[in-house]
Structure formats: C-alpha cells, structure tokens
Specification:
Blueprint (H helix, E strand, L loop, with lengths): L9 H55 L2 E5 L5 E7 L2 E7 L4 E5 L3 E3 L5 E10 L6 E9 L6
Antiparallel strand pairs: 1-2, 1-5, 2-3, 4-6, 6-7
C-alpha cells in the first residue's frame, strides 16, 4: 500500500474550476461594463461638441442676418437666411445623430433674444441624448 499519494481529487478539481469560472465571469462583466460606459461617454461628448458648434453657428446667423427661418425636418435643422440682400440656406445634420430644435418659423428682425431648446440623440440608441436650453442673442447697439 502506497501511503504518500500526491495529486488532486475530482472534487478538488471541480471546486477550483468553479471558483476560477466565477472569477472569470466577474472580470469579464466588469470589462464589458467599462467598455459600454466608455462608449456612452464618448458619444455624449460628441453630442455636446455638436451642440456647441450648432449653437455658435446659429448665434452668428441670428446676429448677422436681416431675417431667417428655421425648420426641423427629420433629424436635421435647416436655416434659410437673408444677409445684405443675399439669400442663403444652411443644413445641419449628422449621420449618427438626430438634431431637434423646439423653435421653428420665421424670426422677427427686431428680436434680440430667442430662447430655444436643442435636443441631440443617437440614431442607434435614442435613449442616449442631451438637451440644451440656450438663447440666441443679438448684440445691442447704442441706438
């Protein structure tokens, strides 16, 4: 009879495999949650940058145009404006984002401050969105 047996029993092997698989699953979940959070964060940052550029451009049009009209067809914003007798049209759209503005119609020439709400969301995931309340303002002269 051999008294010095070295090795693992089947129960010890199964217990170690179960513990390792639980640890592996937890690490895997943490990794993918981090990747998901990172993707959402990058997307929100891109939407915020798009909102900043759009707000700056609309403010410039508001300040320099004699009159303009805003419309919001299917995830884009179209601005038709008149500056020094010349009519121009600008369309703001993005292939991955839906742009919405709550003000549509013609803007009066003497309107100094125009409140509006800008909403940008992902087309692939509509729940990932930002909403920005802003004012388009004109520089007031001395009169």
């Amino acid at each position: 009879m051999v008294q010095n047996q070295r090795g693992m029993t089947v129960i010890e092997l199964l217990a170690s495999l179960a513990i390792l698989s639980i640890i592996g699953i937890l690490v895997w979940q943490v990794f993918f949650q981090g990747m998901n959070y990172s993707a959402k964060s990058i997307s929100k940052n891109n939407m915020q940058q798009e909102a900043t550029i759009l707000t700056a451009t609309l403010t410039k049009i508001h300040q320099t145009s004699d009159e303009y009209e805003l419309s919001n067809p299917s995830c884009s914003i179209i601005v038709q404006y008149m500056r020094q007798g010349t009519t121009a049209v600008e369309e703001f759209s993005h292939p991955e984002m839906c742009l919405e503005i709550d003000f549509t119609g013609e803007v009066e020439p003497d309107l100094n401050d125009l409140p509006m709400k800008l909403t940008i969301n992902e087309k692939a995931n509509a729940e990932n969105r930002i909403v920005q309340d802003t004012f388009l303002y004109r520089l007031k002269g001395d009169g």
